[in-house]
Amino acid sequence: xxxxxxxxxxxxxxxxxxxxxxxxxxxxxxxxxxxxxxxxxxxxxxxxxxxxxxxxxxxxxxxxxxxxxxxxxxxxxxxxxxxxxxxxxxxxxxxxxxxxx
Length: 101
Description:
This protein has 101 residues and is of the alpha+beta class. It has helices at 42-51, 54-60, 64-69, 71-80; strands at 20-24, 37-41. The chain contains 4 helices and 2 strands, in the order E-E-H-H-H-H. The chain has a two-stranded antiparallel sheet with strand order 1-2. This is HNH endonuclease.
């Protein structure tokens, strides 16, 4: 059995050498300190925060399933799944006004 963790957002393995980070499902600034955390590829984590504000995350995206349902994140997931497990690129563009949900 493999001990390589799998990114719950994109479903790809996270190699030990790949950039990675923890994501608080409930933002720390919105009461999530000490709450549930998931390990993600850094690029996946960056895309979450480029797509949603802390308030938006706290209001309706506090589970991995909810994050996957966000239109911009769903498009990103379809794109990133075609990349190598350790793929990393520069930070995504800034949030857009249409991100509020």
